[in-house]
Structures are given as structure tokens and as C-alpha cells.
Amino acid sequence: MAVREIRKYPDKVLKQKASPVATINQDLQDLIDDMIETMYAAPGVGLAAPQVGVSKRLAVIDISAKGAEIPLLVLINPVILLKEGSIEFEEGCLSLPEYTAKIERAEKVIVRAMDRKGRETEMEAEGLLAIAMQHEIDHLDGVLLIDRISPIKREFFKKRHQKKIKSGK
């Protein structure tokens, strides 16, 4: 297992729609293990494969650090089947360090995915788990947190980001 580099905005891999996972083999198991280690080292509650430079439809989520009694989830080729309700939540992202924004998401979702053994499962989630699932699935679709904020806030973010790069901080 290894901690991988987390890709940061504006890395192009973050804006690509990820390819479906075709086979569950040892390389995929190694990637899953690396992603879990990377997520915990960051620390974060979720990580999508594009965030470590791999354009595959794979994500890991563990919200137990936030007090939830839900075990670590590995989502292979996840699809949101149903969204209900609405909730606004202050989200951060490992690919956008030091930036948070209030994002409106579905309060409840039903997601179909395979686990790391290739078993298909449907999960109903609400609250933080539903938010984390939607956030990570967004990454698999090439959608970043800043794509979900208003155009004015997005421009402000981009200008601040450019200023930060120029100042070397």
C-alpha cells in the first residue's frame, strides 16, 4: 500500500468523465488499498480515483471519523438511482485544499455499485453519507465542487486561485 499524490485543481484528470471499471483484478485491489491509505492520510472522508490520477469509476468513503457507525465503503461503477429532498452542506474537497462552499445536494439517495469483490449492491443513504456519495460520484463525472457554486463565486475562486499561484503560496 502507498499514499498517492492527490491531484489538485486545475489538473485535467479532474475534469474528465471516468471510464467504467471493466475487471476486478489485483491491480484494482492495489489501487483500492492505495486510495484508502491516501484518504486516511489526507485526512478525508472520501476519495475518487481521478483524484489520484486514475480515470476509473471507483471511489472510497469512510465517514466514521465524523461519528457515523457506517463501515468503509468501496464503490465500483456507482450510479445514483434516486434522489430525494434537499440539504445544504458546507463541503470541502481534497483536490481544492483550503476551500469550502455551501452546496445543495439531495438529502437522500439510492446508489447502485459493486463492492471490491464485484458484488452488486444497492445502498440507501441520507445525511453526510448521501452528501459524500454525491460528491465522489461528481468526481467520476468530471464535476468539481466549484462547478456547483454560482458563476460569480466560481470566478472569485478562480481569481483567488491564480493570485495564490502567482504568489507561490
From TrEMBL:
Biological process, per Gene Ontology: translation
InterPro entries: Peptide_deformylase (IPR023635), Peptide_deformylase_sf (IPR036821)
Active-site residues from the entry: 136
Co-factor: note: Binds 1 Fe(2+) ion.
Reaction equation(s) it catalyzes: N-terminal N-formyl-L-methionyl-[peptide] + H2O = N-terminal L-methionyl-[peptide] + formate
CDD domains (alphabetical): Pep_deformylase
GO terms assigned for molecular function: metal ion binding; peptide deformylase activity
EC top class, as a word: hydrolase
Residue numbers binding Fe cation: 93, 135, 139
Enzyme Commission number(s) of this protein: 3.5.1.88
Pfam families: Pep_deformylase (PF01327)
Keywords from the named record: Hydrolase, Iron, Metal-binding, Protein biosynthesis
Cofactor(s) needed: Fe(2+)
Gene3D superfamilies in the cross-refs: Peptide deformylase
Database matches in HAMAP family: Pep_deformylase (MF_00163)
Role this protein plays: Removes the formyl group from the N-terminal Met of newly synthesized proteins. Requires at least a dipeptide for an efficient rate of reaction. N-terminal L-methionine is a prerequisite for activity but the enzyme has broad specificity at other positions.
Family: Belongs to the polypeptide deformylase family.
Protein name: Peptide deformylase
Species: Candidatus Sulfobium mesophilum
Encoding gene, per UniProt annotation: def
